[in-house]
Recover the amino acids of this structure.
């Protein structure tokens, strides 16, 4: 059994277990309409979690519109635009409101034996956000860490299944912080879903927040001992 510096056990996630946790995650997402789905690469046969999320920021937008996502915000925005504005005004409204389309993918890393979050973002006219713009969009509570060592947190690289450039939260420290979280959960005899714990930790760094109902899902549905990650021995 290997141990971290702080003395916690090292927990690595097997690919089979990763897929099982994803199935549970998607099932709950469908129940609450959170927009996650499983996609499979036609060429490679591998799959990944996927979600598209629309954000409206930095403008005088009603709070209820800011909280909407996926098809809801797209429908609300374009229904309003099509009914009241001509083509030139549509472009002006979209530019003024800064609607940004985020696409999040969760893949399994065989090298690190952990999940990895890939994402990209663009404005409605198709212009992608630069790395600097991505950094500036990070919540203030994470700004200091990014400024100190940004390349340890967010990098840009080729998507392993799609072959396109995506931003990625580097997985080199995932096992370190997840071992601490899982060890704490085990001491409290709480059965947990690895994907939920991990994504609720790393997602907010790039504007991805899980509804609170996911936190209630893990202890209710993961009731057998096999659902907890086993440390390396």
């Amino acid at each position: 059994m290997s141990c971290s510096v702080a003395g916690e056990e090292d927990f690595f996630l097997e690919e089979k277990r990763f897929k099982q946790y994803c199935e549970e995650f998607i099932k709950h997402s469908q129940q609450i309409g959170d927009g996650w789905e499983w996609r499979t690469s036609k060429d490679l046969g591998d799959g990944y979690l996927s979600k598209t999320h629309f954000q409206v920021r930095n403008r005088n937008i009603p709070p209820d519109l800011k909280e909407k996502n996926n098809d809801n915000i797209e429908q609300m925005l374009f229904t309003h635009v099509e009914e009241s504005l001509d083509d030139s005004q549509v472009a002006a409204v979209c530019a003024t409101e800064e609607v940004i389309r985020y696409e999040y993918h969760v893949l399994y890393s065989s090298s690190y034996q952990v999940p990895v979050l890939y994402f990209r973002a663009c404005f409605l006219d198709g212009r992608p956000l630069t790395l600097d713009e991505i950094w500036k969009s990070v919540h203030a509570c994470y700004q200091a860490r990014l400024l100190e060592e940004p390349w340890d947190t967010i990098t840009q690289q080729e998507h392993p299944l799609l072959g396109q450039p995506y931003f990625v939260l580097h997985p080199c420290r995932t096992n370190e912080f997840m071992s601490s979280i899982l060890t704490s959960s085990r001491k409290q005899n709480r059965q947990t879903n690895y994907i939920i714990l991990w994504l609720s930790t790393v997602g907010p760094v790039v504007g991805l927040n899980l509804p609170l109902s996911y936190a209630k899902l893990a202890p209710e549905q993961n009731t057998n001992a096999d659902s907890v990650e086993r440390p390396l021995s």
Summary: Confidence is low (pLDDT under 50) at residues 1-8, 65-71, 73-87, 219-233. The CA atoms of residues 1 and 232 lie 5 Å apart. The chain has nine helices and six strands. The two ends are 4 Å apart (CA to CA).
